[in-house]
Specification:
Sortase, Chain: A; 28% helix; alpha+beta; single chain; 8-stranded mixed barrel; two-stranded antiparallel ribbon; 21% strand
Length: 321
């Protein structure tokens, strides 16, 4: 391959005063010398084209060509122009500190914004919870009406001074007006599903059942505590009677054994219950009158005979039919 870069000829003195040209190879030339040769070659090629265009009439000289000095000046300035833009001066120490302070302020601002957002989110959740709690209607649990202060059937023994009468001493003094108001309420009329008669073959009981267990109602027979269940249905049928007055209906209640029958009659049907057990309790132990999920019967009477300081309670469950 033939190099397009011409070889540069220089002259050096030889002995005997003879000056001979010395040709340098391209690789021996400096960058400045190569640049100058390239520019000269381009200028010569340009001049030849212009001369050819002028001879053919395709170019007209409007201004004289630049003198060689102008090219020389351009050759000198070219390396300086190719050096590129000047590098910016490094920032001062004051400017660096100011940049750092601004960076810290920006970081703190971002952290503060995140804190405000988190706090707002927490407040929003709290408000939503309060609103939901205000709108939520809790299931109301009815407060049961206290109609049983003591177990029914309580009275003083017929052998005591003044004879048998309602025993107010069993009732706390501040609750006696409540018991008196209940006693004065008229007895409701029995419905077709309520008990109207009771039989206990093991102790020879066959007596009517009335609604209510006040002093006056128990004179008529066995009293059913108001608000208790009906025979054959889930619930507790609470029945009470005296053991030493008004017919001594439950005189032998303490002789009942598990397996004995208690038969309740309604206007439409009879129901057989089986005795499961008995207990002697204080007159204030009204828990035995609590409702039950299964059909049950609870029989209550004063105890012991002619003393009447406690209660005897007999439990029975509906026989499988």
């Amino acid at each position: 391959m033939v190099s397009i870069i011409p070889q540069l000829q220089t002259f050096e003195n030889r002995p005997c005063g003879i000056i001979t040209p010395v040709t340098k190879r391209p690789e021996d030339l400096s960058e400045q010398e190569l640049r100058r040769l390239l520019l000269d070659k381009r200028r010569e090629a340009r001049q030849k084209r212009l001369e050819r265009f002028r001879r053919s009439g395709r170019a007209v000289s409007l201004a004289p060509d630049l003198p060689p000095e102008a090219y020389q000046e351009w050759r000198v300035q070219a390396p300086e122009q190719e050096a590129g833009p000047e590098s910016p001066a490094p920032p001062s120490k004051h400017r660096r500190w100011l940049d750092r302070i601004l960076l810290v302020v920006e970081v703190l601002a971002v952290l503060g914004l995140l804190g405000v957002l988190a706090n707002g989110f927490g407040l929003l959740q709290t408000l939503n919870a309060e609103v939901a709690a205000a709108l939520r209607q809790d299931t109301l649990t009815p407060t049961p009406l206290i109609t049983a202060i003591v177990l029914p059937g309580g009275h003083t023994p017929p052998t005591s001074e003044g004879g048998a009468q309602f025993n107010e001493a069993e009732i706390p003094e501040h609750l006696r007006p409540l018991v008196q108001s209940i006693a004065n309420m008229p007895a409701p009329t029995p419905g077709p599903q309520q008990a109207i008669r009771i039989q206990v073959p093991a102790i020879g009981v066959d007596a009517p059942v009335v609604l209510g267990d006040t002093w006056e109602q128990l004179k008529k027979g066995v009293g059913q505590h108001l608000g208790t269940g009906n025979p054959g249905l889930p619930g507790n049928v609470v029945l009470s009677a005296h053991n030493d007055v008004f017919g001594e209906i439950f005189r032998d209640l303490d002789q009942l054994q598990p397996g004995d029958q208690v038969i309740l009659f309604t206007a439409q049907q009879q129901y057989v219950y089986i005795v499961t057990g008995s207990a002697i309790v204080e007159p204030t132990y009204v828990e035995v009158m609590a409702p039950t999920a299964e059909p049950t019967v609870t029989l209550v009477s004063c105890y012991p005979y002619l003393v009447d300081t406690k209660r005897i309670v007999v439990f029975a469950e509906l026989q499988n039919q």
